[in-house]
From TrEMBL:
Family of this protein: Belongs to the class-III pyridoxal-phosphate-dependent aminotransferase family.
PROSITE patterns hit by this protein: AA_TRANSFER_CLASS_3
Protein name per UniProt: Putative aminotransferase
Any one GO molecular function term: adenosylmethionine-8-amino-7-oxononanoate transaminase activity
Gene3D superfamilies according to UniProt: Aspartate Aminotransferase, domain 1 (3.90.1150.10), Type I PLP-dependent aspartate aminotransferase-like (Major domain) (3.40.640.10)
Record keywords, A-Z: Aminotransferase, Pyridoxal phosphate, Transferase
Superkingdom field: Bacteria
Cofactor requirement: pyridoxal 5'-phosphate
Pfam family, any one: Aminotran_3
GO biological process terms, semicolon-separated: biotin biosynthetic process; gamma-aminobutyric acid metabolic process
Length: 455
């Protein structure tokens, strides 16, 4: 493609190094430059409208023009645009937000610490786990188990937790002492004749075998997303977390829930932990915490973990962790307003209405010859395209079927995320019934076009 000199696209190619992008392809194809948004829609430079079926990055829960969040930011900017929370300093937005998060936590939590992103939150989680076991005088109990296809971010530690090859390859990751357990994707890894429950039992048995092989005295924590998002919207098989947690309990392994996508009603409950019966010791959240209008993330810890932090910081003289922007007052004020809106508009009840429409809508594609599996819960879902429906054989990755789909969908005014050959949906929580219909018909049109191209 050629670009008009000095256009936004030309300048983007010249100056901007893009995350999560094939940089070589970007040099010739350039960016899609988004200039505005309204509700579940965004608009490009030419005014073309797109349904943002991914809510940005699984994150813009309240849509793209929520004035109350803008007002909350302006108000806080005027009152106190910045202050920090180091060395016994504090400010009201951080205090209020910590109190609020504790009051809605899925299990009793003791304290809340703030960061600026999901990756930083999980980085904090790793450090808290190590700190905790040092406080227990078990300095060898430091290994952390995450899962193949789990996604926990891209900082050195959180990328190590992430179980996707492209986040490790040539970045010299993962770091030592991070282990990856099985991916609990029944459709892909269930054995012939194995029920979902039996598969879950096997997953838990394998986790126990891994812990025993490593030595339970060396395994400190296990981290999991309620539904794996960026790994392909993988919904845990029935009874999975119940069985996994029994193993963790047996060997005194801390349980950390990564609620960065699933938190704040995404799965139909306030927390994914509630949807799947998870009782974490540590919980990380971000994204919909502020509807992504400003960067903020939070980690909640239970009393046992908190007391260990107290012990260590007393011994050392300081809890030597925190960011300049931990609990940034403007971000915290926007997050508080976001949580207020969830309550006032009863977003939970709304998801209770539109979530089933999404699940029913995508289930309608299960019989399509290209679709191997349809999966999801609440307002998150995915459809996996396969070469052979019967054998579940995947397409040759070189064909890039998923990427092809995303491109065609974009032409048809639909922004989705292709993860391999799975197409993910995670629309803003405020999506209406009519917009859901529109989103699914743009999907259907795109699917037919992809099918025609593959013939
Ligand atoms: N954890 C999960 C479950 C995520 O989905 C993500 C991002 O998509 C992260 C952590 C990392 O968050 P961030 O991109 O804000 O660093």
């Amino acid at each position: 493609m050629t670009f008009v000199p000095n256009s936004a696209s030309a300048r983007d190619i010249a100056h901007h190094l893009h995350p999560y992008t094939n940089l070589k392809v970007h040099e010739t194809e350039g960016p899609l430059v988004i200039t505005g948004g309204k509700g579940v829609h965004v608009f490009d430079e030419d005014g073309k409208d797109y349904i943002e079926a991914m809510a940005g990055l699984w994150s813009v829960s309240l849509g793209f023009n929520e004035q109350r969040l803008v007002d909350a930011a302006i108000k806080q900017m005027k009152e106190l645009p910045y202050y920090h929370t180091f060395t016994h300093k504090s400010h009201l937005p951080s205090i209020d937000l910590a109190e609020k998060l504790k009051s809605v936590a899925p299990v009793e939590m003791s304290k809340v610490i703030f960061q600026n992103s999901g990756s930083e939150a999980n980085d904090t989680v790793v450090k808290l786990i190590w700190y905790f076991w040092n406080a227990q005088n078990k300095p060898e109990k430091k290994k952390i188990i995450s899962r193949i296809k789990g996604y926990h971010g891209v900082t050195v530690a959180s990328a190590s937790l992430t179980g996707l090859p492209n986040n490790h390859r040539d970045f010299d990751l993962p770091i030592a002492n991070i282990l990856h357990a099985d991916c609990p994707h029944y459709y892909r890894f269930g054995l012939e004749g194995e029920s979902e429950e039996e598969f879950a039992t096997r997953m838990a048995d394998n986790l126990e075998k891994l812990i025993l092989k490593e030595g339970p005295e060396t395994v400190g924590a296990f981290i999991a997303e309620p539904i794996m998002g960026a790994g392909g919207v993988i919904v845990p098989p029935k009874t999975y977390f119940e069985k996994i947690q029994a193993v963790l309990k047996k060997y005194d392994v801390l349980f950390c829930a990564d609620e960065v996508i699933c938190g704040f009603w995404r799965t139909g409950n306030y927390w994914g932990s509630q949807t799947f019966g998870m009782k974490p010791d540590i919980l990380s959240c971000a994204k919909a915490l502020s509807s992504s209008y400003l960067p903020i993330s939070a980690v909640m810890v239970n009393e046992r973990v908190y007391q260990a932090c107290v012990t260590e910081s007393e011994k050392i003289g300081v809890f030597g962790h925190g960011y300049t922007y931990s609990g940034h007052p403007v971000a915290a004020a926007v997050a508080l307003e976001t949580l207020k809106i969830y309550e006032e508009r009863d977003i939970g009840a709304h998801v209770g209405k539109v979530g089933p429409l999404l699940q029913k809508g995508i289930a309608g594609f299960a019989s399509h010859p290209l679709i191997g599996e349809v999966r999801g819960t609440g307002l998150i879902g995915a459809m996996e395209m396969v070469q052979d429906k019967k054998t579940r054989a995947a397409f040759d990755p070189k064909l890039g079927v998923g990427a092809k789909f995303a491109k065609i969908a974009q032409k048809n005014g639909l922004i989705v995320r292709a993860i391999g050959d799975s197409v993910a949906f995670c629309p803003p929580l405020i999506i209406t019934e009519q917009e859901m219909g529109d989103m699914l018909s743009r999907y259907a049109k795109s699917l037919d076009e992809v099918a025609a191209q593959l013939k």
